[in-house]
Hints:
Blueprint: H1 8-23, H2 34-51, H3 58-84, H4 95-116, H5 122-148, E1 173-178, H6 184-191, H7 196-204, E2 208-209, H8 220-227, H9 233-236, H10 247-254, H11 257-264, E3 268-272, E4 286-288, H12 296-302, H13 307-310, H14 317-331, E5 342-348, H15 376-380, H16 385-412, E6 420-424, H17 443-447, E7 451-454, H18 472-481, E8 493-494, E9 504-505
Parallel strand pairs: 1-5, 1-6, 3-4, 3-5
Antiparallel strand pairs: 2-7, 6-7, 8-9
Helix pairs in contact: 1-2, 1-3, 1-5, 3-4, 8-10
Amino acid sequence: MRKFFIFHPFGFAVFPLLLIFSNNAGEIPLRGLVIPLLIVVCFTGMSLLLLRMFIGNLDKRALVLSVFLLLLFSYGHAVRAARNIGFPDNTVLGPEAIVFILWSILLVILTYAALRTDRELRPWTRVLNVVAGILLGVQIIVGGNTLLSATATTTIPNLASPDRLTTAELPDIYYIIVDGYARADVLQRIYNYDNSEFLSFLRARGFYVAEQSTTNYCQTALSLASSLNFDYLQKLATFDKNSNDRALLLGILHNNCVFAFLRHLGYTIIAPASGYAYTEFVAADHYLTPGMTLSELDNSILSLTPVPFIMNLGKTQYDFHRDRQNYILNNMPSFKDGTPPRFIIAHLVLPHPPFVFGRDGEPITRTRLFNFSDGSHYYRDGGSPEEYLDGYRNQLAYLNRRLRKTIEDILTAGRTRPPIVIIQADHGPGSHLDWGLLTATDVTERMGILNAYYLPGLPQNPLYTAITPVNTFRVIFNEYFGTAYPLLPDRNYFSTINLLYDFSDVTDMVGMPPVSP
Length: 517
């Protein structure tokens, strides 16, 4: 009898991972897919072997396993659908529990039907093999096409040769990105939060706080790709405004001018893991992680399944995220200066959602699935405006307290030369952000950011109140390294989540009356 290969359980196990990757190929490095793929393939193979103890027929065994895998990876989608049709969140019988019960019943029924049938299942196996193969092939083509598109031509500013400082005089540079941290007037107006105490602390320690600062772009990857190349994205590459292809953006962000410039001077790049795909600078000279952790891809895969709902492996996804943020805050001061000098880029996903810290740092864990949703997506996934405002205020209060200690430790550590410290938000918060509609968004909330600089040893302050991130490293390189980069006009661009390159110039809208809730 001719041998027949049963493929479909492996195909249905791998398909959800490839789907996530192909939809996010521009922000998830290909190497990040390797371990999850190995895990699901090994799990599927071992499951087939173990089921042999209970189900002798290979076709039935494979069919049962495929049903299980399809239900497993559709769980998260079903939970979201249940929440969208009105099932309330609670700790007893929320959408997660309801879908888990229904999926368990469905699995039992379908497994029973497969085991009891007397029909020849080989034709069904052939059909399922073909279906699984087509699904995988489509995702491979889509993901591959996205990756290949990253070869588009880009242009970056010419790197001027510094002529002022010797290597021994080069200061450490800390670039601390506080995700979604709003400007003081925005905090007061929308969140009823007085941030004057923290800002007074910064000024007392020698920081210049740009009180009218705004971000150049409303999304993290866009903002950081611009600031780390000290130019506007529209000048760095040719983007299709109808495209959602993020591969080119990832290349611009990770192969940025700041890293190239500082490496040319002998700097070591240090990047702690952020948990956010775009700012996982794994090619840094020192990429630091807090031991066991979960990447954004790992979290996305887990959130498709009931694993976060039923598991208690000592840590939840919320715990891993909390540990990562504390790890960055705890260890930033320990990066001492020396030979060569250091550039530390630390992306804190705080006070941005998910809201995992209470005001005093106590752990907060939501009953719903873990993700980084903000703005209208936060509400789509089950959050409420009241929860957003309260969660943001509490997480901000905790972050302020931790930053005070971190900054004190950085500035008081024994050094041959005081460090440069930049504390800068990539964008503002999103309690009034509509990801699909500019006119429904409070532009000032989203664009108004905290932007503070500690620039020691300069005879006069080169900064100004409305400076935007695109000019941050132009100022620093000019003042400390003798370059002559002209400062650019400070402009603000909004784009939706699905058309991130369709930029709307909202410079004249920033500061206008807010959108009605």
